[in-house]
Design brief:
Length: 64
């Protein structure tokens, strides 16, 4: 399915293997965030929370 990244506005083609696929199918009009934007958001979150690397690791596991 064709998606449009909410942040960088680039077009991507995703399949069922993409973790966001189900979410987008169920929620038409939901926003897709591509991997590179996702990573930069995570970096921003880590920078703004000032978490210790150990805590970031736990936080990351929690998200997955
Ligand atoms: Zn993007």
């Amino acid at each position: 399915m064709e998606v449009h990244c909410f942040f960088c506005k680039k077009d991507y083609s995703i399949t069922r293997s993409d973790p966001q696929y189900i979410k987008l199918v169920q929620n038409r009009g939901g926003s897709y965030v591509c991997k590179s934007c996702n990573q930069s958001m995570q970096r921003d979150a880590q920078a703004s929370t000032g978490l210790h690397p150990d805590q970031i690791d736990a936080y990351d596991k929690f998200l997955k």
